Protein 1
Amino acid sequence: MTPTVLHTTSFVPDATRLIIDASRAAISERGIFRIALSGGHTPEPIFKLWAATAGDLPWDRVQITFGDERCVPPDDEQSNYRMARHSLLDLVPIPPGNIFRIQGELPPEEAAAEYDARLTQLASRFNEPRYRHDLLLLGMGPDGHTASLFPGTEALTEQTRNVVHNFVPKFDTYRITFTYPLINAARHVCFLLQGDDKKPVIKQILAGDKAYPAAHVIPTDGRLTWILGWAAE
Ligand code: 6PG
């Protein structure tokens, strides 16, 4: 499967358009849109524009999960959930029961086990061996990490569970993260990247370099898109 690479200087509108198009297609085909939100700073303006332009999207047909979370309470400024709440979830009529938050306030192992079990239970409702996102958003750091799959960390080797707790030495803290089996089960994975500091790594990944965690996002039976917020060089 060859990834789609979109260079754009209209990053936020183009990324938002992809999300809205994916939501309409999923709801039309399967009656539900299952999306995993990425964290960090990049997605925030995209979530805001989505909230402002979603129009008549039936939010009761949207199911929200989170690709990773810091081990902090939901109102902590480090929380990915908090960012999504302020930029999207509090601005749209989505039923609270459709939002599946990672409980970062719990001990890391417990938070991961709870979320893993939750996704397993949801998958069984869809008669799936593993929860299958319609669209799974990811960011990437300048070190090539994605979600909280950081270079040299244990979570990179997880082949069974959907979600694990992962100690990240560079931050001297745990994170809760999707694993490759869950990410690669998605119908469509879309990386959203902005920032000159990421250009060297993405260039190497697109050239086939497998040294970086983001390079191992290879949907088993799905699409992979990179939306890069800069003009092609
Ligand atoms: C997180 C994210 C992480 C993020 C990248 C890019 O919790 O930080 O999930 O994987 O997507 O670090 O972050 P920026 O968008 O802030 O550059």
Protein 2
Amino acid sequence: MSKHDFDLFVIGGGSGGVRAGRVAASLGKRVGIAEEYRFGGTCVIRGCVPKKLFVYASQFSEHFRDAAGFGWEVGATRFDWAKFIANKDKEIARLEGLYRKGLETNGAQIFESRAVLEGPHTVRILKNDRVVSAERILIATGGAPRHLRDVEGGDLTITSNEIFHLERQPESMVIDGAGYIGVEFACILAGLGTKVTLILRGEQILRGFDDDIRAALHNEMVRKGIDVLPHTRLTKVAGSPNGNRVVSLSNGSTLEVSQVMQAIGRLPNTEGLGLEKAGVHTGMDGSVLVDQYSRSNVPHVLAVGDVTNRVQLTPVAIHEAMCLIETEFRGNPTSPDHELIPTAVFSQPEIGTIGMTEAQAGLAYDAVTVFFTKFRPMKGTLSGSEERMVMKIIVDDASDRVVGVHILGPDAGEMIQALAIAIKMGATKADFDRTMALHPSAAEELVTLYTPSWRVKGGEKV
Ligand code: FAD
């Protein structure tokens, strides 16, 4: 019998922590898990899931417009923000219940409290000031939005944490930051009828994504009425008597809007966590530094998910947790595989992507061939929509392997998820070419792109 209260104590009841805690408990381990806010974590409570519900809500305005070309007469429409938020909250509460139930039915002990490290094997449960000991401790505290308060009036801005619970729909909004969260919310709010201004420090939205896709989405967003302002920063935010915000921008202009949201990235959630008391090393960004088995420099203190700042995505946190279970409790050392992670941006239109961008592939390989197409999806013919779909396949000339696929358009995320299996298996362009098309579909373009569009040699487009 272990001298500790628990075999595993998990700090953080989000995607990674709940998975590790539930599975360890199902293996008969004595598990404790502390959550300071709500079980389910960022993804379920104020991330992926409610965001996707917002995306669905926002798409109806376009569906209503498209309907006319197909002979439908849609009467007057109106979006009821309060009703949507209430329905969304009900669904989130249901999911939260499932997360708790999964832990409880497997025998994990739940602590509804903030927990901090007290020493290498001890955790303090703040709610009742109790100290418990554990053989292993898992840090799964996730990340938190960066919130710049040093901009004058920064306290008057919100982050993605608050956007899900606003009492009223903002009539107008400035979003600072054009990473995926900023871009997704710009599209969501615009779809719901909010006047959106998206400001970014750089030249182009979505740093790290393929340049052609970035440019095409930028154009679509502008076409939908979103003001995208490159090379722009917030310099000051002030309140106004009517509850609005008066925003000063680095380009010298001033805007009065209902809300300002900062979407400038997320930082690992380790502040005040007591890592130093356990002797755990962190990186410059506060992330817990881990080895290939998610072990910190103190081998029985483990960390998975956003708090390690490897790849900040839910399936990655869950995968890291499952690998940790294999390594720690099943005697089968397993490292998480971070290669070829399919990713979506739930913008409108949507992005689905896997593998290298053209720029990355151009540097990684001597020569690559790019197959590119831009077309109007079939639905757009009758609806009259101007929206274009973009697809791009990047192939390493030497091996014929498909090293990157990038799609902009309806259901791009769904397409990429299915395609990811083939790419992970090492599919070649010849494999794509001998795959039968499914007609009529947009995805059939992926297997009928026979003619190269351009090549990249030595990093240069030729
Ligand atoms: P989290 O899910 O953040 O869980 C950490 C938990 O720890 C939280 O519940 C927190 O309250 C708790 N906690 C923190 N400190 C303590 C403490 N000291 N004591 C007790 N509890 C503590 N990912 C995708 O894959 N797809 C998407 O579409 C997507 N969309 C997103 C949209 C938004 C707006 C945001 C913000 C994120 C999105 N993500 C998405 C990212 C995804 O939510 C995270 O990658 C994922 O939740 C990480 O899981 P985690 O277990 O590491 O941390």
Protein 3
Amino acid sequence: MAAGAGTLAGASAAAQLDPNKLAKFVDPLPIPPPVRSRSTRVAPDRPGKQVPYYRIEMTEIQSPLHRDLPPARLWTYGGSFPGPTFTARSGEGLLVEWANQLPNRHFLPIDHHLHGAEANRPEVRAVVHVHGAKVPPQSDGYPEEWITPGKSLTYYYPNQQEAALLWYHDHAMGINRLNIYAGMAGLYIVRDSFEDGLNLPSGGYEIPLVICDRFLKTDGQLDYPVSGMPDAPWVPEVFGNVMLVNGKAFPYLDVQPRKYRFRILNASNGRFYNLTLSNRERFQQIGTDQGLLPAPLALEMITLAPGERADVVLDFSSHAGEQMILANETFQLMQFRVGRARVQDTSALPTALRPVPRMEEASAVETRILSIDELKNAVGDTITMLLNNTPWHMPVTEKPVLNSTEIWAILNPTEDSHPIHIHLVRFQILDRRRYDPFTYTTTGKIRFTGPVEPPEPGESGWKDTVRVHAGMITRIIMKFEGYPGRYVWHCHVLEHEDNEMMRPYEIVKPA
Ligand code: C2O
Ligand code: CU
């Protein structure tokens, strides 16, 4: 454990790294390894049926984030960052034993003022949530169900859902921004026969791109910013100086002149991305958070908030021998090096993908008006973020009935866009509309100040995370299918989530 030794709580004396000083495109893009099946066990919901059983250990490792940097201290699932990739078949369950084998001390700055992270709690706590998974509540990774080093939790994932790119990450109350920042995230792909039938690029031609930013120091270590108040180090947002793809800064990928499918995840704490390709080349977006779109969309830019995913096809066939850059605005994320040798490409990009039947507003039995709130102190610093002005520990207020459809109209009077994620369900975005927050706070009335805006084309499939824009009311519609019980909904800006921008909700059985 050389590189981290002698430094306390991430307080290394090294200076901030200047990313422009790092050599570009010298590391090959790492591909997270597949999980290995350890054994099989009986499925909890189907006596007699054996399902795969995996054991994933959360461990500290030392691994460089760039060829020319010393190894960074990272907390991982299964020893890699991102963690190993699960591949599940729709309708076929699997069991995972998540084992906390982390050290007893955290290396990033805990704020003991935050609910759930008080000084009398163990420093190192972890619980895993598979983002976008339709799972029973006892396997969803409830934020208060954390475990300490030496303990493990076994969760069952029934995978009764359509093909989609899900991801797993830490969800421990009050510190999940730190655990995820330390490296605790990985991919969970659900496949099904409908998608198989489309003959999209697969195998070595289907590549995950997990994008996240971090502050790096010249000694190669992660640095998590602090407020300057020693007792209250929480900061409302983190925008790192380096953006990583699959855990490397400025990687390159050798590709053949043919079609590839890229499964893109924004795993950042707070950064939104506007992804573009050099030469204004276009992405063919084929899917959103929860699966395929009805038809491919040619887009010059893909926007992803934290937690969102985009499924895209890139066709390099007319770029043999060229190099292409994937960028976020002016920051070059990675390079594609297209080979010269002509290859046969038998994969397809069908013009019709998967029907996404529009959910009818009339099918909703309830419309909930919910707000996003920021509390500021006397000097204007944000001190707490809330959903519906209600802290986490207050009694549950959202209790949808199992199998009922609801519309949630989320009001955002703040100055920032917040990516709101609801566990268990998939939803559709109905619309967004500008309104006057002042009228609402003073009279409780909604006064619209702009036209109804439909979802962007790239958001018009099944979603589980939605950008709720400043000064707008964003409406989503969803059916609470699956399981009765306690789940959560929250902002996916992890700093917000850890500071009260998360609420429990409960699916109740029909009376
Ligand atoms: Cu991706 Cu509740 O989280
Ligand atoms: Cu937020």
Protein 4
Amino acid sequence: MKSRRDLILEEMGLTPVWRLRDSAPGAEQAPVAAPAAIVEPSPARREAAQPAPITRHSSLVTDAGDRRATIMRMEWPGLKAAVASCVACPLHAKRNQTVFGVGDENADWLFVGEGPGAEEDALGEPFVGQAGRLLDSMLSAIKLKRGANVYIANVVKCRPPANRNPEPAEALACEPFLHRQIDLIRPKLIIALGKVAAANLLASDASVAGMRGKVHQYRGIPLIVTYHPAYLLRSLPEKAKAWADLCFAVRTMAGLGPRKTAG
Ligand code: SF4
């Protein structure tokens, strides 16, 4: 007999319900990913994939190094205030509010998406629409939940108009904020949700299909790439692959050592 949760998710079009393989005896198993390989972006590739320099807001460009250095020294309160008042890229003009990120600031797990949509812009929290509900289901499937050992953030903190992808210059302007968030959280594992997040964190133009199933590195932190929940809502057959990615992430996390200490 289906549980209430199964029925709700079925009603939302989010079936099959995600389950950890040891939590549902007899449940159908999705295929597992190929053995992990550690993949480091080459310096030349990282340089080649860097977004184009910002050509507008020239005073901010001039001060980009100072701005970055200032952000890199911020603690949580200052960082949140800096994001809330940021006008460093054109996305500030049409936002209702910035969407900083949410969750456990000492989390082992960090999930990174691309940017806020309309509902996130209205509520100020990432992943609160239908894609957010799917992300919550994905977290639940691996016995995680938002806010408990999990932090969720985006590449850009302001909503790109019409839900377009952030421009490279916008992502570049916002990158110090995400960089500092990651420094403060010190997660054990980063999950990049979708191509925009993966491209910006890994400085790669490879497809999600080409990046998934491997353990990459973001400044020494293991990083796994999977599909963005919004893409999964449009491409339900890919859910089996995303499930395999989550199983791979759980296995990867199980093999990681203790958290890095600050310093
Ligand atoms: Fe600032 Fe980031 Fe918003 Fe651009 S997207 S205005 S860099 S907070």
